[in-house]
Amino acid sequence: MPWIQMKINTTGAQAEELGDALIENGAVSVTFQDTHDNPVFEPLPGETRLWGDTDVIGLFDAETDMQDVIAGLEHHPLLGNGFHHKIEQIEDKDWEREWMENFHPMRFGQRLWICPSWRDVPDPDAVNVMLDPGLAFGTGTHPTTSMCLSWLDGLDLAGKTVIDFGCGSGILAISALKLGAAQAIGIDIDPQAIQASRDNAERNGVSERLSLYLPHEQPENLSADVVVANILAGPLRELAPLISVLPVSGGHLGLSGVLSSQAEGVCEAYADKFTLDPVAEKEEWCRITGIRR
Residue 158: is its pLDDT beyond 90? Predict the structure, then answer.
């Protein structure tokens, strides 16, 4: 059957509260999308990550009286009378097929491709990681993940050990293994992320070389030739004493999940132990890399 979609533009800080208001006023589902039309796919496990201007989109049954919905929402303290919104009718579609059609193999750097399982591999001789898109833990679509994948592709990982701090789907650890790393270690605070990483590693035939830990389970004195952490600026600063000791002397560090405006503060937290490269930027996000002194 057809559906009615209501879209409200707001700030990231208010998005979750307005999503709840839409549900309370009859929406059967709510999604969040940034105003650059990039779906917010990669929260830190257990958190809602929304940045900048955000569209809150509610989906309603076609029989819904939207005037009643509007009247109900006008009583919300974040909206009020005459709040800005857009309502449109949505055709009934095979939504799963529609969703699948929007995802294509993506190339990162010179060798690496991330490929959905239902698509043909563009280059059988390339380094291909099979990973299906999902809303929870990351698939390469977000600029921060994209920059980390390109960085890993540019390193000589042959025989190296890689730590993926905040591994989520395992995309970075698995890609490192496919790019030649001897072993990888994934650490995450969310058991669902650990399971997702384990499943994806098995799908890609690298599970025997990937060790996965919740923080309280990880071995003492972990170290690696390459450490990558694609999380958030706040945790990166707070956890700098822990993350800084993970790379061996001369080892590589890659940090992302950081807005360009936050880069200076994160760099300051690591500058005493690392020789840092110029900050790489993409779509208001940045990647910080360096070598352990």
Answer: yes
Average pLDDT of the chain is: 86
CB 181 within 8 A of CB 160: yes
Residue pLDDT, tens place only, 94-139: 544 555 565 778 899 999 998 887 788 889 999 999 887 653 345 5
Asked if 259 and 275 touch (Cβ cutoff 8 Å), the reply is: no
Q: How far apart are CA 156 and CA 113, in angstroms?
A: 17
| Residue 129, CA atoms < 13 Å, CB-side half-sphere | 32
Q: Give the tokens for residue 238.
A: 């707070």
Whole-angstrom CA distances from 92 to 6, 35, 89 are 16, 24, 10
Left, alpha or beta for 205 (phi > 0: left; psi -120 to 50: alpha)?
left
Q: DSSP code of 131? A: -
- β-sheet bridge partners, residue 184: 162, 210
Q: What is the dihedral of CA 130, 136, 140, 145, to 10 degrees?
A: -130
Q: If residue 82 lies in a helix (H) or strand (E), which one and from where to where?
A: none
Encode pLDDT of 233-260 as tens digits.
Answer: 999 999 999 999 999 999 999 999 898 9
pLDDT in tens, 262-293: 999 999 999 999 999 999 999 889 999 999 99
Distance CA 164, CA 264 (A): 22
- Residue closest to 278 by CA, chosen among 290, 268, 270, 292: 290
Instruction: Write the CA distances from 129 to 170, 189, 270, integer angstroms.
Output: 11, 24, 31
Helix, strand or coil for residue 220? Answer: coil
105 to each of 62, 123, 220, how far by Cα in Å?
35, 10, 38
Instruction: State the pTM of this model.
Output: 0.67
User: 39 - beta bridge partners?
Assistant: 33
- Residue 189 structure tokens: 């605070």
